[in-house]
Amino acid sequence: MTISPATGSPAPGAGLPYPTAPTDLGPDALGGAARTLAASLTRAIFDRREAIELVVISVLAGGHVLLEDLPGTGKTTLARALAQSLGGELRRVQATADLLPADITGSSIWDASRGGFVFAPGPIFSNVLLVDELNRTPPRTQSAFLEAMDERAVTVDGVRRQLPDPFLVVATQNPLEQYGTYPLPEGQLDRFTMALQLGRNSLETERRVMHAHLAGLPLDEVTSVLPPEGLVSLRADVHRVHVAGPVLDYALAVVDGTRRYPALALGASTRAAVSLMRCVQARALLHGREHAIPDDVRALAPAVLGHRVQPLDTAGAGGLTRGAEAVQAVVRATSVPF
Asked: What letter does residue 29 receive in the DSSP assignment?
Protein backbone atom coordinates (compact mmCIF):
# COMPACT_ATOMS: atom_id res chain seq x y z
CA MET A 1 0.00 0.00 0.00
CA THR A 2 1.14 3.48 -0.67
CA ILE A 3 0.74 5.42 2.55
CA SER A 4 -0.27 9.05 2.39
CA PRO A 5 -1.59 11.33 5.11
CA ALA A 6 -5.19 12.43 5.31
CA THR A 7 -6.10 15.62 3.53
CA GLY A 8 -5.06 18.64 5.52
CA SER A 9 -2.37 16.91 7.60
CA PRO A 10 1.33 17.38 7.03
CA ALA A 11 3.23 14.58 5.34
CA PRO A 12 5.13 12.41 7.81
CA GLY A 13 8.70 13.58 7.92
CA ALA A 14 8.03 16.93 6.27
CA GLY A 15 10.55 19.43 7.55
CA LEU A 16 11.95 16.90 10.02
CA PRO A 17 15.58 17.81 10.81
CA TYR A 18 17.60 14.59 10.60
CA PRO A 19 21.06 15.03 12.17
CA THR A 20 23.97 13.21 10.58
CA ALA A 21 25.72 11.97 13.73
CA PRO A 22 24.57 10.80 17.15
CA THR A 23 25.21 12.99 20.16
CA ASP A 24 24.22 12.36 23.76
CA LEU A 25 21.75 9.58 24.45
CA GLY A 26 20.68 11.11 27.77
CA PRO A 27 17.04 11.88 28.59
CA ASP A 28 17.16 15.35 27.07
CA ALA A 29 18.35 14.06 23.68
CA LEU A 30 16.15 11.01 23.14
CA GLY A 31 14.15 12.64 20.36
CA GLY A 32 17.41 13.53 18.66
CA ALA A 33 18.61 9.94 18.95
CA ALA A 34 15.44 8.78 17.19
CA ARG A 35 16.05 11.24 14.36
CA THR A 36 19.65 10.04 14.15
CA LEU A 37 18.33 6.53 13.60
CA ALA A 38 16.15 7.81 10.76
CA ALA A 39 19.13 9.66 9.27
CA SER A 40 21.17 6.47 9.28
CA LEU A 41 18.62 4.72 7.09
CA THR A 42 18.79 7.46 4.45
CA ARG A 43 22.37 6.39 3.70
CA ALA A 44 21.08 3.20 2.09
CA ILE A 45 17.51 4.13 1.11
CA PHE A 46 17.11 7.19 -1.10
CA ASP A 47 14.05 9.46 -1.24
CA ARG A 48 11.98 7.27 1.08
CA ARG A 49 11.68 9.62 4.03
CA GLU A 50 8.02 8.83 4.64
CA ALA A 51 8.62 5.06 4.74
CA ILE A 52 11.75 5.52 6.86
CA GLU A 53 9.85 7.58 9.42
CA LEU A 54 7.07 5.01 9.63
CA VAL A 55 9.56 2.19 10.19
CA VAL A 56 11.39 4.14 12.89
CA ILE A 57 8.10 4.96 14.62
CA SER A 58 7.18 1.29 14.65
CA VAL A 59 10.54 0.38 16.19
CA LEU A 60 10.21 3.10 18.85
CA ALA A 61 6.72 1.81 19.65
CA GLY A 62 8.15 -1.63 20.38
CA GLY A 63 6.55 -3.22 17.35
CA HIS A 64 7.33 -5.28 14.27
CA VAL A 65 7.29 -4.19 10.63
CA LEU A 66 5.98 -5.92 7.51
CA LEU A 67 7.23 -4.62 4.16
CA GLU A 68 5.21 -5.78 1.16
CA ASP A 69 6.16 -5.00 -2.42
CA LEU A 70 7.46 -6.41 -5.67
CA PRO A 71 11.00 -7.81 -5.79
CA GLY A 72 13.78 -5.27 -6.19
CA THR A 73 12.03 -2.28 -4.61
CA GLY A 74 14.36 -2.03 -1.60
CA LYS A 75 12.48 -4.00 1.08
CA THR A 76 15.41 -6.11 2.19
CA THR A 77 17.81 -3.18 1.91
CA LEU A 78 15.65 -1.11 4.25
CA ALA A 79 15.35 -4.01 6.71
CA ARG A 80 19.11 -4.63 6.73
CA ALA A 81 19.87 -0.92 7.08
CA LEU A 82 17.58 -0.78 10.11
CA ALA A 83 19.25 -3.79 11.68
CA GLN A 84 22.75 -2.40 11.09
CA SER A 85 21.75 0.98 12.51
CA LEU A 86 20.35 -0.53 15.68
CA GLY A 87 23.37 -2.64 16.49
CA GLY A 88 22.88 -5.67 18.66
CA GLU A 89 22.64 -9.14 17.17
CA LEU A 90 21.13 -9.49 13.71
CA ARG A 91 19.93 -12.84 12.38
CA ARG A 92 18.43 -13.41 8.96
CA VAL A 93 16.05 -16.13 7.79
CA GLN A 94 15.31 -16.77 4.14
CA ALA A 95 11.80 -18.18 4.15
CA THR A 96 11.23 -21.22 1.94
CA ALA A 97 8.51 -23.84 1.57
CA ASP A 98 10.53 -26.47 3.44
CA LEU A 99 11.41 -24.30 6.45
CA LEU A 100 10.37 -25.91 9.76
CA PRO A 101 9.33 -24.24 13.06
CA ALA A 102 12.45 -25.64 14.75
CA ASP A 103 14.55 -23.84 12.14
CA ILE A 104 13.21 -20.60 13.68
CA THR A 105 12.92 -21.32 17.39
CA GLY A 106 15.71 -23.86 17.83
CA SER A 107 15.50 -27.36 19.25
CA SER A 108 17.09 -29.80 21.66
CA ILE A 109 19.97 -31.82 20.29
CA TRP A 110 21.93 -34.72 21.74
CA ASP A 111 25.24 -33.75 23.30
CA ALA A 112 27.38 -36.85 23.69
CA SER A 113 29.90 -35.06 25.92
CA ARG A 114 27.16 -34.24 28.42
CA GLY A 115 25.19 -37.41 27.95
CA GLY A 116 21.91 -35.59 27.38
CA PHE A 117 19.94 -33.16 25.28
CA VAL A 118 20.85 -29.48 25.19
CA PHE A 119 18.91 -26.61 23.68
CA ALA A 120 20.38 -25.05 20.55
CA PRO A 121 18.80 -21.59 20.10
CA GLY A 122 17.43 -20.72 16.68
CA PRO A 123 17.80 -17.40 14.86
CA ILE A 124 14.82 -15.94 16.70
CA PHE A 125 17.11 -15.44 19.70
CA SER A 126 18.41 -12.11 18.42
CA ASN A 127 17.74 -8.40 18.77
CA VAL A 128 16.69 -7.97 15.14
CA LEU A 129 15.27 -10.87 13.13
CA LEU A 130 15.05 -10.23 9.40
CA VAL A 131 12.66 -12.64 7.68
CA ASP A 132 12.91 -12.38 3.93
CA GLU A 133 9.80 -13.36 1.93
CA LEU A 134 7.80 -14.46 4.97
CA ASN A 135 4.82 -15.53 2.88
CA ARG A 136 6.90 -18.19 1.11
CA THR A 137 6.90 -20.36 4.23
CA PRO A 138 3.85 -22.54 5.06
CA PRO A 139 1.37 -21.75 7.87
CA ARG A 140 2.91 -24.29 10.25
CA THR A 141 6.20 -22.41 10.17
CA GLN A 142 4.56 -18.99 10.17
CA SER A 143 2.95 -19.94 13.48
CA ALA A 144 6.40 -20.20 15.07
CA PHE A 145 6.56 -16.41 15.07
CA LEU A 146 3.26 -15.76 16.88
CA GLU A 147 4.30 -16.25 20.51
CA ALA A 148 7.63 -14.51 19.93
CA MET A 149 6.09 -11.44 18.32
CA ASP A 150 3.37 -11.07 20.94
CA GLU A 151 5.11 -12.12 24.17
CA ARG A 152 8.85 -11.86 23.38
CA ALA A 153 9.29 -15.51 24.34
CA VAL A 154 9.18 -18.97 22.75
CA THR A 155 8.17 -22.33 24.17
CA VAL A 156 10.24 -25.30 22.99
CA ASP A 157 9.91 -28.80 24.46
CA GLY A 158 7.60 -27.43 27.14
CA VAL A 159 10.13 -24.85 28.34
CA ARG A 160 9.40 -21.14 27.96
CA ARG A 161 12.46 -19.07 27.05
CA GLN A 162 12.63 -15.28 27.01
CA LEU A 163 14.02 -13.51 23.95
CA PRO A 164 16.63 -10.73 24.12
CA ASP A 165 15.53 -7.18 24.87
CA PRO A 166 15.02 -5.41 22.54
CA PHE A 167 13.56 -7.89 20.06
CA LEU A 168 11.89 -6.98 16.79
CA VAL A 169 10.92 -8.70 13.57
CA VAL A 170 11.33 -7.01 10.20
CA ALA A 171 9.66 -9.18 7.57
CA THR A 172 9.26 -8.78 3.84
CA GLN A 173 6.81 -10.41 1.52
CA ASN A 174 6.00 -10.38 -2.16
CA PRO A 175 2.46 -9.75 -3.46
CA LEU A 176 0.20 -12.75 -3.08
CA GLU A 177 -0.43 -13.34 -6.76
CA GLN A 178 3.11 -14.64 -7.21
CA TYR A 179 3.71 -18.39 -7.42
CA GLY A 180 4.46 -20.35 -4.26
CA THR A 181 3.22 -18.00 -1.55
CA TYR A 182 0.99 -18.54 1.50
CA PRO A 183 -1.23 -15.65 2.66
CA LEU A 184 -0.55 -14.54 6.23
CA PRO A 185 -3.56 -15.22 8.50
CA GLU A 186 -5.33 -12.32 10.20
CA GLY A 187 -3.93 -13.28 13.61
CA GLN A 188 -0.37 -12.97 12.37
CA LEU A 189 -0.99 -9.75 10.44
CA ASP A 190 -2.43 -8.29 13.64
CA ARG A 191 0.91 -8.79 15.37
CA PHE A 192 2.72 -6.51 12.93
CA THR A 193 2.57 -2.94 14.19
CA MET A 194 2.80 -1.56 10.66
CA ALA A 195 2.61 -2.86 7.11
CA LEU A 196 3.66 -0.67 4.22
CA GLN A 197 4.90 -0.65 0.67
CA LEU A 198 7.82 1.30 -0.71
CA GLY A 199 6.42 1.58 -4.24
CA ARG A 200 8.41 2.05 -7.41
CA ASN A 201 11.35 4.46 -7.48
CA SER A 202 11.15 7.54 -9.65
CA LEU A 203 13.62 7.63 -12.53
CA GLU A 204 15.74 10.20 -10.70
CA THR A 205 15.84 8.07 -7.56
CA GLU A 206 16.67 5.01 -9.63
CA ARG A 207 19.53 6.92 -11.18
CA ARG A 208 20.86 7.78 -7.70
CA VAL A 209 20.65 4.12 -6.69
CA MET A 210 22.53 3.00 -9.79
CA HIS A 211 25.18 5.67 -9.34
CA ALA A 212 25.67 4.75 -5.65
CA HIS A 213 26.16 1.08 -6.53
CA LEU A 214 28.90 1.96 -9.00
CA ALA A 215 31.10 2.98 -6.06
CA GLY A 216 30.10 0.08 -3.79
CA LEU A 217 27.17 -1.04 -1.68
CA PRO A 218 25.24 1.76 0.09
CA LEU A 219 24.65 -0.64 2.99
CA ASP A 220 28.39 -0.56 3.67
CA GLU A 221 27.93 3.06 4.72
CA VAL A 222 25.40 2.16 7.41
CA THR A 223 26.86 1.66 10.88
CA SER A 224 25.38 1.24 14.34
CA VAL A 225 24.11 4.56 15.71
CA LEU A 226 21.90 3.26 18.52
CA PRO A 227 22.93 0.40 20.84
CA PRO A 228 20.28 -1.97 22.20
CA GLU A 229 20.23 -0.25 25.58
CA GLY A 230 19.67 3.08 23.81
CA LEU A 231 16.60 1.68 22.06
CA VAL A 232 15.28 0.36 25.37
CA SER A 233 15.62 3.88 26.82
CA LEU A 234 13.89 5.41 23.80
CA ARG A 235 10.96 3.05 24.17
CA ALA A 236 10.63 3.92 27.84
CA ASP A 237 10.54 7.61 26.92
CA VAL A 238 7.83 6.94 24.33
CA HIS A 239 5.62 5.66 27.14
CA ARG A 240 5.94 9.04 28.88
CA VAL A 241 4.56 11.06 25.96
CA HIS A 242 1.26 12.61 27.06
CA VAL A 243 -1.92 11.67 25.20
CA ALA A 244 -4.81 13.97 26.09
CA GLY A 245 -8.32 12.58 26.42
CA PRO A 246 -9.64 14.19 23.22
CA VAL A 247 -6.76 12.74 21.17
CA LEU A 248 -7.47 9.30 22.64
CA ASP A 249 -11.17 9.71 21.83
CA TYR A 250 -10.30 10.69 18.26
CA ALA A 251 -8.15 7.58 17.80
CA LEU A 252 -10.93 5.40 19.22
CA ALA A 253 -13.41 7.01 16.82
CA VAL A 254 -11.17 6.12 13.88
CA VAL A 255 -10.74 2.53 15.08
CA ASP A 256 -14.49 2.15 15.69
CA GLY A 257 -15.16 3.70 12.28
CA THR A 258 -13.36 0.78 10.62
CA ARG A 259 -15.81 -1.60 12.29
CA ARG A 260 -18.77 0.23 10.80
CA TYR A 261 -17.34 1.07 7.38
CA PRO A 262 -19.53 -0.67 4.75
CA ALA A 263 -16.61 -1.76 2.52
CA LEU A 264 -14.94 -3.69 5.34
CA ALA A 265 -15.93 -7.16 6.50
CA LEU A 266 -13.62 -6.95 9.51
CA GLY A 267 -12.63 -3.82 11.42
CA ALA A 268 -9.60 -3.11 13.57
CA SER A 269 -9.11 -4.98 16.85
CA THR A 270 -8.40 -3.69 20.34
CA ARG A 271 -4.77 -4.71 19.83
CA ALA A 272 -4.77 -2.44 16.77
CA ALA A 273 -6.11 0.45 18.85
CA VAL A 274 -3.34 0.00 21.42
CA SER A 275 -0.71 -0.18 18.67
CA LEU A 276 -2.06 3.01 17.10
CA MET A 277 -1.77 4.94 20.34
CA ARG A 278 1.74 3.67 21.03
CA CYS A 279 2.78 4.74 17.52
CA VAL A 280 1.15 8.12 18.07
CA GLN A 281 3.33 8.57 21.14
CA ALA A 282 6.41 7.51 19.16
CA ARG A 283 5.67 9.97 16.36
CA ALA A 284 5.31 12.80 18.85
CA LEU A 285 8.72 11.93 20.34
CA LEU A 286 10.32 11.72 16.91
CA HIS A 287 9.00 15.21 16.13
CA GLY A 288 10.34 16.59 19.40
CA ARG A 289 7.04 16.88 21.24
CA GLU A 290 6.07 15.72 24.72
CA HIS A 291 2.41 15.39 23.77
CA ALA A 292 0.41 13.79 20.96
CA ILE A 293 -1.80 15.72 18.54
CA PRO A 294 -4.62 14.64 16.17
CA ASP A 295 -2.31 14.86 13.15
CA ASP A 296 -0.31 12.00 14.65
CA VAL A 297 -3.42 9.82 14.48
CA ARG A 298 -4.28 10.93 10.95
CA ALA A 299 -0.77 10.32 9.63
CA LEU A 300 -0.38 6.85 11.14
CA ALA A 301 -3.82 5.21 10.94
CA PRO A 302 -3.47 3.75 7.39
CA ALA A 303 -0.10 2.12 8.09
CA VAL A 304 -1.11 0.81 11.53
CA LEU A 305 -4.68 -0.28 10.76
CA GLY A 306 -4.70 -1.00 7.03
CA HIS A 307 -3.37 -4.56 7.25
CA ARG A 308 -5.61 -5.40 10.24
CA VAL A 309 -8.91 -4.80 8.43
CA GLN A 310 -10.46 -7.05 5.81
CA PRO A 311 -12.17 -5.62 2.73
CA LEU A 312 -15.38 -7.28 1.57
CA ASP A 313 -13.79 -7.90 -1.82
CA THR A 314 -10.86 -10.20 -1.06
CA ALA A 315 -10.40 -11.57 -4.57
CA GLY A 316 -7.00 -11.11 -6.20
CA ALA A 317 -4.02 -9.21 -4.90
CA GLY A 318 -3.90 -5.83 -3.24
CA GLY A 319 -5.81 -6.60 -0.05
CA LEU A 320 -3.39 -4.58 2.06
CA THR A 321 -3.67 -1.65 -0.31
CA ARG A 322 -7.47 -1.73 -0.24
CA GLY A 323 -7.41 -1.95 3.53
CA ALA A 324 -5.23 1.15 3.81
CA GLU A 325 -7.45 3.04 1.38
CA ALA A 326 -10.52 2.11 3.45
CA VAL A 327 -8.84 3.33 6.64
CA GLN A 328 -7.90 6.55 4.87
CA ALA A 329 -11.57 7.04 3.97
CA VAL A 330 -12.56 6.46 7.60
CA VAL A 331 -10.01 9.04 8.73
CA ARG A 332 -11.41 11.63 6.31
CA ALA A 333 -14.94 10.94 7.56
CA THR A 334 -14.05 11.16 11.26
CA SER A 335 -14.27 14.60 12.83
CA VAL A 336 -11.62 15.78 15.26
CA PRO A 337 -13.50 16.04 18.60
CA PHE A 338 -12.18 19.47 19.52
From this structure: G
CA distance 320 to 329: 14
Low-confidence ranges of the chain (pLDDT < 70): 1-30, 175-179, 314-320, 338
Task: Specify the pLDDT at position 229.
Answer: 87
In angstroms, rounded to a whole number, what is the distance separating the alpha carbons of residues 66 and 38? 17
Using an 8 Å Cβ cutoff, are 254 and 294 in contact? no
For 94-127, the pLDDT digits (tens) are 999 899 999 999 998 988 888 888 999 999 999 9
* Three-class SS state of 295: helix
**Contact at 8 Å (CB) between 198 and 50?**
no
Within a domain: 289: yes
> What CATH number corresponds to the domain at position 281?
1.10.8.80
DSSP state of 263: T
Q: What integer pLDDT is reported at residue 270 of this predicted model? A: 93
Residue-range definition of the domain harbouring residue 322: 241-338
Nearest-angstrom CA–CA distance, 127 and 138: 24
Beta strand residue intervals within the chain, DSSP E: 65-68, 90-94, 106-111, 116-121, 128-132, 153-156, 159-162, 168-173, 194-196, 264-266, 310-311
Residue 4 located in a structural domain = no
Measured over the CA atoms of residue 313, residue 314, residue 317 and residue 322, the dihedral's sign is positive
Whether the CB-CB separation of 7 and 299 falls below 8 Å is answered with no
Query: Using one digit for the tens of pLDDT, what is the confidence trace for 229-262?
Result: 889 989 999 999 999 999 999 999 999 999 999 9
Q: What's the total number of domains in the chain?
A: 1
